Amino acid sequence: MKRLILAITLVSLPLTALLTAQSADAQSRSRESRQRTTQKAEENQYPNTSRAEPDRKTNERSMRRIQTAYTALNEGEYDKVTSILGELDGNARLTAYEQGLVNQGLAQAAYEQDDVETALVHWQKAVDGGGMPNNQHFQLMYQIAQLQLMEEHYDAALATVDRWLRESGSTKPEAYGLKGNALYRLERYDEAVAALDQAIGASGDSPANGLFELKMAALYEKQDYLGASQVLEELVRRRPDEVKYQINLAQTYIELEQLEKALPVMQNLRSSGKLKDTEHWRQLYQLQAYADRPADAAATITDGIQAGALPADKDTLRALGDNYYQAEMIDQAIDAYTRSAAASPDDGNADQQRGHLLLERERNAEAREALATAMRKGNLRDPGTAYLLIGELEAEAGNNQAAIAAFREALKHDRSRGNAELWLKNLGAR
């Protein structure tokens, strides 16, 4: 199965910042009043959660040490952070809220030093400890799911985002997108499509294009090309100037054997000057050839070479010759095969094709030279036919012994054996 060019990116958001630890005098009445106001605002971010807002009990001594650690964290002194918070970690005198702050600080210090696995452990402890206010609790949980996805812990990411959706009561589309991404990575494509449909539905009038891209990829992987084409049609409608969507749409039409739809998409890209990549130009001329439009294919190859989008190498020039030949433009085909042969020092196939067409044009001397060159270069895909052509040239020149020798070589190859036997019979040879 052909692969999409399209590259699928992770659905993720920036990491949330750590809570700044309260200073030692945070237990004053004025601070407690502001804390209650902040707590109320945090609760408003998750109005549908059934989780009760926990108390933020603190004590002055531990909060001083936590504040010192967080100051060191802001200054990049990660060893100091780990030392201070490591001594506090698990201390029975810490409140649940303080223990959550400790775990967050340890997690952030580890993360800043590229130790993501340790960071995940401490962030998970901060969530499971249950001491953080709702806003931070659910931010951390969502952050964990994102990191698990980025670290390719797809089962864990799926479990975490499912927990987040269940406990937070939120229906934000990014979460369903994250779930769909995890399911896609786990190759659970039907479930991925269902989750992505939820994400799209929850996005109102402006769903992110990435959700459609991921849904299209999931449908493509499960070989639901009709469904994938419908998603791509929507993406093309939304972003008509995005070339990759149109390329993938054409590819999907090809999978559905709807060449009558695929060809106009690619031709429109070419006519509008948006066909840039060599592979896309090659896809267009191959599609034209497959649709029995060899003259158009030859024109596309010629234009692609002139534009510098296609290399004038032996394979491209041979494809040019093949399409000219199919279009019955024999002189142009001979020229293309001649150019291909010049670029093929160790491959005689273009010389063989050139010799064949020169023989058809009754340009026997040139045909003889081309076929001799083909035999000298070697690596022929159909050497039996080359011997048949040489035998025919020798027979027409009255060199029967040379013709017989060539036809006997052709006998050794299945594809040419039948014709070789007929020629030998006509020449009275056995």
From TrEMBL:
Domain Ancillary SecYEG translocon subunit/Cell division coordinator CpoB TPR per the UniProt entry, residue ranges: 67-219
Record key words, sorted: Repeat, Signal, TPR repeat
Biased composition (Basic and acidic residues): 28-43, 52-62
SMART domains: TPR
Pfam families on file: TPR_16 (PF13432), TPR_21 (PF09976)
Region spans: Disordered: 22-62
Superkingdom of origin: Bacteria
Signal peptide feature range: 1-26
Repeat region (TPR), residues: 314-347, 384-417
Key word Calcium present: no
InterPro entries, A to Z: CellSynth/LPSAsmb/PSIAsmb (IPR051012), SecYEG/CpoB_TPR (IPR018704), TPR-like_helical_dom_sf (IPR011990), TPR_rpt (IPR019734)
Keyword Lipid metabolism included in the entry's annotation: no
The protein, known as: Uncharacterized protein HemY
